[in-house]
Specification:
There is one protein chain. By secondary structure, this protein is α/β, with parallel strands linked by helices. Helix content is 54%, strand content 17%. It is built from ten helices and eight strands. The strands form two sheets. The chain has a six-stranded parallel beta sheet with strand order 2-1-3-6-7-8, sandwiched between helices. α1 (11-25) links the parallel β1 and β2 (29-33). The protein is elongated.
Protein backbone atom coordinates (compact mmCIF):
# COMPACT_ATOMS: atom_id res chain seq x y z
CA UNK A 1 0.00 0.00 0.00
CA UNK A 2 1.11 3.59 -0.61
CA UNK A 3 2.61 5.33 2.37
CA UNK A 4 2.99 8.88 3.58
CA UNK A 5 4.84 10.54 6.41
CA UNK A 6 3.65 13.03 9.03
CA UNK A 7 6.37 14.82 10.97
CA UNK A 8 4.73 16.44 13.99
CA UNK A 9 5.01 16.02 17.76
CA UNK A 10 1.37 16.93 18.50
CA UNK A 11 -0.93 13.87 18.36
CA UNK A 12 -4.06 15.95 17.77
CA UNK A 13 -2.57 17.63 14.71
CA UNK A 14 -1.20 14.34 13.37
CA UNK A 15 -4.64 12.72 13.77
CA UNK A 16 -6.36 15.65 12.07
CA UNK A 17 -3.94 15.43 9.14
CA UNK A 18 -4.47 11.68 8.88
CA UNK A 19 -8.24 12.16 8.88
CA UNK A 20 -7.88 14.75 6.12
CA UNK A 21 -5.68 12.47 4.01
CA UNK A 22 -8.06 9.51 4.25
CA UNK A 23 -11.06 11.70 3.41
CA UNK A 24 -9.63 13.84 0.61
CA UNK A 25 -6.48 12.18 -0.74
CA UNK A 26 -6.75 8.39 -0.46
CA UNK A 27 -6.20 5.33 1.68
CA UNK A 28 -2.54 5.53 2.64
CA UNK A 29 -0.53 3.90 5.39
CA UNK A 30 0.71 6.63 7.66
CA UNK A 31 4.01 6.90 9.44
CA UNK A 32 4.31 9.52 12.20
CA UNK A 33 7.66 10.89 13.39
CA UNK A 34 7.55 12.87 16.63
CA UNK A 35 11.16 14.02 17.05
CA UNK A 36 14.23 15.09 15.10
CA UNK A 37 15.95 11.96 16.38
CA UNK A 38 13.27 9.75 14.81
CA UNK A 39 13.51 11.81 11.62
CA UNK A 40 17.27 11.26 11.40
CA UNK A 41 16.84 7.52 11.87
CA UNK A 42 14.17 7.42 9.17
CA UNK A 43 16.38 9.33 6.72
CA UNK A 44 19.19 6.84 7.28
CA UNK A 45 16.91 4.01 6.08
CA UNK A 46 16.57 5.61 2.68
CA UNK A 47 12.85 4.86 2.30
CA UNK A 48 10.66 6.65 -0.27
CA UNK A 49 7.08 7.74 0.47
CA UNK A 50 4.36 9.24 -1.68
CA UNK A 51 4.23 12.50 0.24
CA UNK A 52 5.47 14.12 3.43
CA UNK A 53 3.73 16.69 5.61
CA UNK A 54 6.36 18.46 7.69
CA UNK A 55 6.03 20.61 10.81
CA UNK A 56 9.08 22.89 10.98
CA UNK A 57 9.22 23.13 14.76
CA UNK A 58 9.40 20.02 16.90
CA UNK A 59 9.95 20.10 20.65
CA UNK A 60 13.50 18.80 20.29
CA UNK A 61 14.56 21.09 17.47
CA UNK A 62 13.92 22.64 14.07
CA UNK A 63 13.35 20.47 11.02
CA UNK A 64 14.05 23.16 8.42
CA UNK A 65 17.59 21.90 7.96
CA UNK A 66 16.18 18.51 6.85
CA UNK A 67 14.13 19.92 3.96
CA UNK A 68 16.66 19.14 1.21
CA UNK A 69 17.14 15.60 2.53
CA UNK A 70 13.38 15.06 2.62
CA UNK A 71 12.93 16.41 -0.92
CA UNK A 72 14.64 13.34 -2.38
CA UNK A 73 12.48 10.98 -0.31
CA UNK A 74 9.15 12.01 -1.81
CA UNK A 75 7.38 13.51 -4.81
CA UNK A 76 5.47 15.96 -2.66
CA UNK A 77 6.73 17.76 0.43
CA UNK A 78 4.27 20.07 2.16
CA UNK A 79 5.76 22.32 4.84
CA UNK A 80 3.80 24.06 7.57
CA UNK A 81 4.58 26.07 10.69
CA UNK A 82 3.23 28.80 12.94
CA UNK A 83 6.16 31.02 11.99
CA UNK A 84 8.74 30.93 9.22
CA UNK A 85 11.22 33.42 7.82
CA UNK A 86 10.73 34.77 4.31
CA UNK A 87 14.29 33.84 3.33
CA UNK A 88 13.56 30.24 4.32
CA UNK A 89 10.31 30.26 2.35
CA UNK A 90 12.16 31.41 -0.75
CA UNK A 91 14.84 28.75 -0.24
CA UNK A 92 12.18 26.01 0.04
CA UNK A 93 10.46 27.30 -3.08
CA UNK A 94 13.79 27.15 -4.92
CA UNK A 95 14.35 23.63 -3.58
CA UNK A 96 11.04 22.55 -5.12
CA UNK A 97 8.76 22.14 -2.09
CA UNK A 98 5.28 21.11 -3.22
CA UNK A 99 3.44 23.38 -0.81
CA UNK A 100 3.99 25.82 2.06
CA UNK A 101 1.20 26.75 4.48
CA UNK A 102 0.81 28.35 7.88
CA UNK A 103 -0.56 26.71 11.03
CA UNK A 104 -3.02 29.59 11.07
CA UNK A 105 -4.47 28.25 7.82
CA UNK A 106 -7.15 25.56 7.72
CA UNK A 107 -7.38 22.01 6.42
CA UNK A 108 -9.06 23.59 3.40
CA UNK A 109 -5.69 25.16 2.55
CA UNK A 110 -4.04 21.77 2.85
CA UNK A 111 -6.72 20.39 0.52
CA UNK A 112 -6.04 23.22 -1.93
CA UNK A 113 -2.33 22.38 -1.80
CA UNK A 114 -2.99 18.75 -2.74
CA UNK A 115 -5.39 19.77 -5.50
CA UNK A 116 -2.98 22.30 -6.97
CA UNK A 117 -1.90 21.49 -10.52
CA UNK A 118 0.63 24.31 -10.67
CA UNK A 119 4.21 23.48 -11.52
CA UNK A 120 5.27 26.08 -8.95
CA UNK A 121 5.10 25.73 -5.16
CA UNK A 122 1.62 26.12 -3.69
CA UNK A 123 1.51 28.98 -1.19
CA UNK A 124 -1.41 29.60 1.15
CA UNK A 125 -2.94 33.07 1.25
CA UNK A 126 -1.23 33.81 4.56
CA UNK A 127 2.18 32.88 3.21
CA UNK A 128 1.57 34.95 0.08
CA UNK A 129 0.49 37.89 2.23
CA UNK A 130 3.61 37.50 4.37
CA UNK A 131 5.88 37.66 1.31
CA UNK A 132 3.88 40.51 -0.19
CA UNK A 133 4.12 42.52 3.04
CA UNK A 134 7.90 42.32 2.83
CA UNK A 135 7.87 43.49 -0.80
CA UNK A 136 5.60 46.41 0.08
CA UNK A 137 7.77 47.36 3.05
CA UNK A 138 10.88 47.48 0.88
CA UNK A 139 8.99 49.50 -1.72
CA UNK A 140 7.92 52.05 0.88
CA UNK A 141 11.44 52.22 2.29
CA UNK A 142 12.81 52.81 -1.19
CA UNK A 143 10.25 55.52 -1.85
CA UNK A 144 11.17 57.16 1.43
CA UNK A 145 14.89 57.08 0.78
CA UNK A 146 16.43 60.49 1.17
CA UNK A 147 17.54 61.68 -2.24
CA UNK A 148 20.37 64.20 -2.40
CA UNK A 149 21.67 66.00 -5.45
CA UNK A 150 25.26 65.33 -6.48
CA UNK A 151 26.38 68.65 -4.97
CA UNK A 152 24.44 67.96 -1.75
CA UNK A 153 26.19 64.60 -1.50
CA UNK A 154 29.54 66.37 -1.84
CA UNK A 155 28.60 68.90 0.85
CA UNK A 156 27.27 66.15 3.12
CA UNK A 157 30.56 64.25 2.86
CA UNK A 158 32.51 67.31 3.96
CA UNK A 159 30.04 68.16 6.73
CA UNK A 160 30.51 64.65 8.12
CA UNK A 161 34.26 65.26 8.02
CA UNK A 162 33.55 68.22 10.34
CA UNK A 163 34.61 70.81 7.74
CA UNK A 164 33.61 74.43 8.27
CA UNK A 165 31.58 76.37 5.71
CA UNK A 166 34.67 78.24 4.48
CA UNK A 167 36.57 74.96 4.01
CA UNK A 168 33.66 73.40 2.16
CA UNK A 169 33.33 76.44 -0.10
CA UNK A 170 37.04 76.40 -0.95
CA UNK A 171 37.07 72.66 -1.52
CA UNK A 172 34.09 72.73 -3.90
CA UNK A 173 34.84 76.13 -5.45
CA UNK A 174 31.48 77.57 -4.47
CA UNK A 175 30.43 80.51 -2.31
CA UNK A 176 29.75 80.27 1.43
CA UNK A 177 26.12 81.26 0.77
CA UNK A 178 25.77 78.33 -1.62
CA UNK A 179 27.25 76.02 1.02
CA UNK A 180 24.76 77.31 3.57
CA UNK A 181 21.89 76.76 1.10
CA UNK A 182 22.95 73.18 0.44
CA UNK A 183 23.29 72.50 4.16
CA UNK A 184 19.79 73.85 4.83
CA UNK A 185 18.41 71.54 2.15
CA UNK A 186 20.28 68.58 3.62
CA UNK A 187 19.09 69.35 7.16
CA UNK A 188 15.50 69.65 5.89
CA UNK A 189 15.64 66.31 4.07
CA UNK A 190 17.08 64.55 7.12
CA UNK A 191 14.75 66.45 9.47
CA UNK A 192 17.55 67.80 11.67
CA UNK A 193 18.59 71.31 12.69
CA UNK A 194 22.36 71.09 12.84
CA UNK A 195 25.44 69.22 11.69
CA UNK A 196 25.58 67.52 15.10
CA UNK A 197 21.99 66.33 14.74
CA UNK A 198 22.79 65.11 11.25
CA UNK A 199 25.78 63.08 12.47
CA UNK A 200 23.74 61.55 15.28
CA UNK A 201 20.93 60.57 12.90
CA UNK A 202 23.28 58.96 10.40
CA UNK A 203 24.98 56.98 13.16
CA UNK A 204 21.70 55.63 14.57
Amino acid sequence: MSQYLIIDDHPLIAEAIDYFVRKHVGDYDQLVLKSCEQLELWLEKGEFVDFIILDLHLNDGLTGSYVKDLMIKTDRLIIYSAEMENDDIRNWIDAGAFGIISKSDSLADLKAAFESNSVTTFLSHRIKDQLLAEVNKKKIEKENEIKLSKREQEVLKLVLEDKKNQEIAESLFISIKTVESHKRNIFTKYEVRSAIGLMQKLKS
